[in-house]
Amino acid sequence: MSLSATGKLRKVVAIGDVHGDYYRVLRILEEQQILIPGTLVWDPFSDNVDLVFIGDYVDWRGEQLEGYEDEWPKGSYKVLWLIKFLFETVDKLRKKYKNFSSRIYMLMGNHDDMMLESLNIFKYLANDELEEIINNPTGYAVIAQKYMDAGSDGAKIVDIVMRFLNWFVQGGQQTIDSFGGLYEWKNSLEGEMGKFLDKRLLLGVVINNRLYAHSVPDKKEFWVPIENAGKIKCGVRDRLKEAFLWGRKVWGYDFTTGQRTKPHSSSEMDDMLRKIGIKGFVVGHTPMRKDYPVLAFNGRIVNIDLHGVPGSQPYVEIYYSSDGE
Q1: Contact assessment for residue 60 and residue 16, using Cβ atoms and an 8 Å cutoff
Q2: pTM exceeding 0.85
Q3: Dihedral angle at the C-alpha atoms of 277, 284, 48, 195, nearest 10 degrees?
Q4: Closest CA to 207 of 88, 90, 103
């Protein structure tokens, strides 16, 4: 695939849950000849690539990562910064080269959604109040009692605080630290980085009749045709977040309890794919502890959540595109 190519053949490179593994992303981009080795320069001859990030860019929780150990705490911020930089690079290349048609898709993961929802806490608490809760466990009890005594509005605030703390202990603390602290994290997500995420994050995208999303929907109410020309946009139908950020039944887990449950049957999977109008899914969300994509249901479901496994590989597919895009 080169700048003189007709644009008929395209390559998908899909990278699973990252969780702050910045150097894993760099390695994969170099191995797939997307970045020129040792640089952050997009190879202009990789002009027919669909680069898909499957979500969960943030919230390192101590898993083994690649690269330089002393830089791991910075990973969540650096991953987001890198993807933003890649979008800017591709936009410039598409303007510069007539035949350059590479694209990037940034899908939302449940951890990314939890991070963005956690910003709501600043509508009710000042930085110093939140610092008190984070640094002093008894601080939460004092503030909770204060707001619970305020009635229904207070109960809402307590719920928001609990949601923040739930994210904080699931890797949120490391994410905040990667930005440089609570103040810097807040300012970045309310500023340029937040605007970028709001513009670019999707719940899913269909490429070559496969739906790329963070997870497979559990409930049949979500087994409906894809709209918006194959893209599922965030914020349009927020209930879809349950379907495409949290579902785990396909792997035999109830996402609300984490307990084992009966997975989808082969006939249910046939019905799901037929109703959505696709031939398969490429997802993450449920760790596989392998260094290669895991196939299920005769290859119709591909899981690329391989974080915490150094050297793990992306999902790669070559396909024919009739319109060159």
Answers
A1: no
A2: yes
A3: 100
A4: 103
